Amino acid sequence: DCNSCFRCHFNYITRSEPTSTSRTSNDNMPKAEAKSKPKKGRTEKKKKDPNAPKRGLSAYMFYANENRERVRNDNPNITFGQVGKVLGE
Questions:
Q1: Max Cα separation, the chain?
Q2: What backbone torsions phi and psi does residue 4 show, to the nearest 5 degrees?
Q3: Closest CA to 81 of 71, 31, 73, 27
Q4: Above 90 in pLDDT, residue 14?
Q5: Is the Cβ–Cβ distance between 32 and 26 less than 8 Å?
Q6: Cβ atoms within 10 A of the Cβ of 78, count?
Q7: Closest listed residue to residue 69, CA positions, set 79, 83, 57, 59
Q8: What's the pLDDT score for residue 19?
């Protein structure tokens, strides 16, 4: 067995020794009761501040805003989704 190829590794894994079915003394012992954790109530989501500053635009959004009208003029029957696709090309 070289253990470097899949076939040898698979043969090594699938080859198993028979396990004993005898019971140990721990099998007859009663199981300890699990301690339950106190349940926490749902925390309320923080309310978003409407006066908070907005995040800045990405470079792509600056590009898209400048070129959206040109794309619409070049393709008058283009849909909204297709405008984004053309701008992304």
A1: 84
A2: -105, -20
A3: 71
A4: no
A5: no
A6: 14
A7: 83
A8: 54
